[in-house]
Specification:
The chain has about 700 residues and is mainly beta. It is built from 7 helices and 43 strands. Strands 1-17-19-18-14-13-2 form a 7-stranded mixed beta sheet, covered by helices on one side. The protein has a 6-stranded antiparallel beta sheet with strand order 7-8-11-12-15-16, with no helix packed on it. It has a 4-stranded antiparallel beta sheet with strand order 3-4-5-6, with no helix packed on it.
């Protein structure tokens, strides 16, 4: 029976195809239907887990190779092309100098989606200290008083630091970084088509940290800012996705690729004869199907799922073996890989490795957390694009009542896909989701050169759907009407029993929703304006502060600029754009466009700070003359709108570390900010600068970091 498992259905199908003529019929891997009653199922022991992994890997391998077959004079879709991709929117110090300084009256921290749910970022602030991850180092600052901003110390972080969480009460930083453990096998990077794409094989080249080697978690005691102490370290296979903290309970979400046997190939060895003979190409693919499956079935569970380790403060290493009972599979196809929720209890004894793991055999998706639950949204995996095929998302809920474990609570099925974490929100036990439904259609006048009807256009519409937990399932309670045909959601926000959605194609409709009755979510208002918003920030119950782009009426870039808007939603049925402010030109950029953590609103002072970069090419060939890198500050008032306060420039720091030292993960442009009382701190990968709000152009203090060694 084991032999049948190792050399099963793929091998037999390949053998049956060989010798059937120059152009035999090769059936595709059939798409699996959407599961309307989604659920996760645990593995009682390790044998079924290994079987499921290898079955899934074999199926994915076969689907990838089948896409290479020549079919009636063309490739997969007749003319050698893939279907068009749907448009998608492009997220107290015990120091040597004495006791703790008196802090500011008020200050800003990370811009969290949910009150009480702290989100990770590469910057953390507690009013008197600012912590920054830059390059391979952690920089620890005394930041108050602002005039005495000082770099107290720094420490090397192994690998590539990603983000961190800070617990002010416990004086702990929880830092995530990617390290290269040179694990056996090789990961596979998958393409980005909505319904699946060919494999892009690393083919013997190191895929780097982004290839998904090992995630390191470093817990650092920062009670003495001048001498931070590593208290524990955790190493687990995978790559960092997201993290949350509720009191002393830390939840880290990571994903890991399937690591293919070293000799698995996703394309035949090149030969000029393969280009000339469909028969030879098909025979080469047939042979690869058989060989690859043999390699996949010969793997052990240890080859697929690597163990981890815990390192205590004293250096004691404790293995973290794989527990097959911690793994779940979905009853629906959701892609290839592993997603793990790691629970770390900061109140437990640090030497006891207080860890809990819950893993799903699935590709990664969107993460949202309330104070009571964490949700993972994973897309249905379509093996092949087909006409009238719609994208679907599976929602998995995990209970967070135990600080050292995320307990599976139920799943649901949603038609459509999510723009980001703000598309989900839990209120009074009801999950509200803003979704865009994309459906492949066939244009009979635009098909492949073999005359076969293939999907080549996409229809879209959006809606808000509500879910309630019942009997271990997330059951749909109600849905709004479909809206914005031909457009996609670019931003969403739920505030109490109200919801707000922005879609875009050429104009920017803001839709308002009454969610007071979860069974009947209702669209009650709509406002169309040029451009779109990528982030929505509530100001009380009556106004929305948004950030995005201004565009021409036809949606083109001819008059593009960044745009702030203030919407009056006092009358939910008749929203009004009360005030706007344009920034920059066609080349302007801000991290806040795609990452809400760069958007810094200070309610105590009514101030907004935004990173801003721009290039003015009208200044000839002098790059620096037309370059701007600064933090722009505005006073925001619902009665008077936006009043520019000024800008805190970091251009000189940017120039100090010139182009040869820049990289895709390290750049001196302004990326974040912190505000405390009447002071503003601009933060870059190259340092921090502080100024008083009334005189931003005159810095009171600056610290400088060093670029990573290349």
């Amino acid at each position: 029976m084991r032999q049948w498992k190792r050399y099963g259905w793929v091998g037999l199908a390949a053998v049956a195809a060989v010798g059937c003529g120059d152009d035999p019929e090769y059936p595709k891997v059939e798409n699996e239907p959407v599961q309307q009653q989604a659920r996760l199922e645990s593995f009682e022991d390790c044998a079924p887990l290994e079987q499921y992994i290898e079955d899934t890997a074999t199926r994915r391998m076969r689907a990838s190779l089948e896409q290479m077959r020549p079919r009636n004079g063309g490739w997969l879709f007749g003319d050698g092309s893939m279907p068009p991709r749907a448009d998608a929117p492009t997220e107290g110090d015990a120091s040597s100098g004495g006791g703790s300084p008196r802090g500011p009256d008020d200050y800003t921290g990370t811009n969290n989606q949910v009150a009480g749910v702290h989100e990770a970022d590469f910057v953390q602030n507690d009013g008197t200290h600012i912590f920054v991850l830059s390059g391979p180092r952690l920089y620890l600052h005394r930041s108050w008083p602002a005039e005495q901003l000082t770099l107290a110390s720094s420490m090397e972080i192994q690998g590539w630091p990603r983000e961190m969480l800070y617990d002010k009460e416990r004086k702990r930083l929880v830092i995530t970084s990617q390290v290269d453990d040179d694990r056996p096998g090789r990961p596979t990077v998958w393409g980005g088509l909505l319904t699946g794409a060919p494999v892009m094989d690393c083919a013997g080249f190191r895929c780097g940290y982004m290839g998904g080697d090992t995630l390191k978690v470093t817990v650092v005691d920062v009670s003495n800012l001048s001498s931070p102490q590593v208290k524990q370290q955790v190493f687990l296979p995978g790559s960092y996705l997201s993290a949350r903290r509720m009191d002393g309970a830390v939840r880290l979400v990571l994903s890991d690729d399937f690591r293919w046997p070293a000799d698995v190939r996703f394309y035949p060895e090149y030969s000029s004869s393969l280009e000339r003979s469909k028969k030879q190409m098909n025979e080469a693919i047939d042979a690869l199907l058989v060989k690859n499956e043999q390699l996949i079935r010969a793997q052990t569970l240890a080859d697929w799922v690597a163990p981890g380790k815990h390192v205590a403060e004293d250096g004691t290493v404790t293995p973290l073996p794989v527990s097959c009972g911690d793994f779940y599979r979905s009853n629906a196809p959701t892609g290839l890989g592993f997603v793990t929720v790691l629970s770390l209890d900061l109140d437990a004894a640090e030497g006891a490795a207080p860890l809990g793991r819950t893993s799903i055999v699935s590709a990664p998706g969107t993460v949202y957390a309330s104070t009571e639950a964490l949700y993972l949204a994973a897309s249905h995996w379509w093996w092949w694009p087909e006409a009238n095929q719609s994208d679907h998302t599976y929602l998995h809920k995990f209970d967070l009542s135990e600080p050292n474990r995320a307990t599976y609570a139920g799943s649901g099925t949603l038609e459509g896909s999510l723009v980001n974490q703000f598309a989900m929100d839990e209120h009074e036990g009801v999950l509200r989701v803003a979704t865009t439904v994309s459906t492949w259609r066939v244009d009979p006048t635009n098909n492949g050169n073999d005359g076969v009807s293939v999907p080549n256009s996409m229809e879209t519409h959006s809606r808000v759907v509500t879910f309630g937990a019942e009997g271990g399932h997330l059951q749909e309670l109600g849905r709004s009407e479909d809206l914005a045909a031909g457009e996609r959601i670019f931003s969403a926000r739920f505030v109490g029993k109200k919801g707000y959605v922005v879609t875009f194609r050429q104009t920017d409709p803001l839709f308002t929703f009454d969610l007071s009755d979860p069974v009947h979510p209702r669209k009650v208002g709509e406002l169309k304006i040029p451009g779109f918003s990528t982030y929505i920030h509530p100001l009380g119950d009556t106004h929305l502060l948004t950030f995005g782009e201004d565009r021409a009426e036809d949606g083109t870039w001819t008059s593009r600029a960044l745009k702030l808007s203030l919407f009056d939603v006092t009358d939910l049925a008749h929203p009004k754009e009360a005030f706007t402010h344009r920034m920059g030109g066609t080349s302007s950029y801000s991290d806040a466009q795609g990452d809400h953590k760069a958007f810094n609103f200070f309610p105590a002072k009514g101030l907004l700070a935004l990173p801003f970069t721009d290039w003015n090419y009208n200044n000839g060939y002098d790059y620096w003359t037309g370059f701007t890198s600064e933090l722009r500050v505005f006073r925001v008032d619902t009665a008077t709108g936006f009043t520019p306060v000024g800008a805190l420039s970091m251009k000189d720091v940017y120039q100090r570390f010139n182009e040869p030292q820049w990289s895709w993960y390290w750049s001196p442009s302004v990326r974040r900010s912190v505000m405390a009382d009447d002071y503003v701190y601009a933060i870059t990968d190259a340092g921090i600068r502080a100024s008083k709000v009334g005189s931003l152009q005159t810095p009171v203090a600056t610290t400088v970091f060093q670029p990573p060694v290349r």
